[in-house]
Amino acid sequence: MARALSERTIALVKATVPALEAHGLDIVHEMYSRMFQNPEIRDLFNQSHQGDTGSQPRALTGAILAYAKNIENLGALAAAVERITQKHVGLQIHPEHYPHVAEALLGAIAHVLGDAATEEILNAWGEAYWFLANILITREAAIYEDLGASKGGWNGWRAFEVVEVRPESSVITSFILKPIDGGPVLRHRPGQYLTFWFDVPGHAPVKRNYSISCAPNDETYRITVKREAQGLASGWLHDNARPGMVLKVGAPAGDFFLSEEPQRPVVLLSGGVGLTPMVSMLEAIVARHPETEVHYVHGAHDAKTHAMGDYVRRLTAAHPRVRSTVFYEMIAANDAGNFDHQGVISGAWLSEHTPIQEADYYLCGPRPFLRALVLDLKTAGVSADRIHYEFFGPADGSLAA
Known about the structure:
Elements: H1 7-15, H2 17-35, H3 39-42, H4 55-69, H5 78-90, H6 98-113, H7 119-149, E1 158-167, E2 172-179, E3 193-198, E4 206-211, E5 221-226, H8 232-240, E6 246-249, E7 266-271, H9 275-288, E8 294-300, H10 309-317, E9 322-328, E10 341-342, H11 347-353, E11 360-364, H12 367-379, E12 387-390
Parallel strand pairs: 7-8, 7-11, 8-9, 9-10, 11-12
Antiparallel strand pairs: 1-2, 1-6, 2-5, 3-4, 3-6
Helix pairs in contact: 1-7, 2-4, 2-6, 5-7, 6-7, 11-12
């Protein structure tokens, strides 16, 4: 167990909060600049989230500030710590990587704050960094051990063959993956993701997370990927992944997943390609918990971009406890039967058509979608412990995201 932080260290770190509020983003950019001088460390990161307009620097800035504000009450950060450790395991981050980050962070603080970064301040931040790092390392070691000991589990990068490519819409395609070693696969928790290492010609190794879009089984995984306009990985997958291609895959990870034994009605809310973990959850519920009341509510831009619509309709039609509702923002003359409502999902609609006072709500989609609906649900009286959500992009201050 890590030795408790001294009262002096806690006081010094909390005293830096105003400086972090004013200069935190500059510190993080400087930190990344220093780390990326080492190719081994640089290649751990999703480069699409970096840069002056990238989302990861802002997320890490927020996480560092939250740590400084709550350093004497880390219980308030427990959920964020679990998200970080899950992401680290997906990316195969190990104890030997942490000293590089410590050196870069302390160097960045000294560089940006100048004379204000006294030796005492830097020593306090060094102690605080390693206190948190040891918590992460301990939790990550437990996850690695569990993955290695579980049926179908593994550590490191495992080779999977693409055995089927299935177009789902004009912009979304599913890829069915099977391990080339012929062994079983770990039964994931519905909602979790896989981490991929892509060798894209002309680029450093590219690492991405994609939600698993099928129910747990012993043989294969399915990922369902949207081609993003500027997406290096998604574009490469759509253009190049064909049956027979071999991909490097990390074991399932993530802290967003369906309860193993649902005790209440379940509402699955998704926007766009955010349906991927929801379909995994839906398949798992109808297979293992057919008595559970389920509301599958999905919003798509239009019929062309709506993925898995026919499949979900067939699945829900065969199970009387499942109700499916689809919203389209734009409709065409021949769209009848593909959707139920024009517009976007709203809190008012959910209050009227779903069991708002008793259900568990699982949400996945773009930030604006989540921001609006999470607020609507809280306003409608849904307690925080019944609202579970995931969005695509860096959700926290992960070491490497």
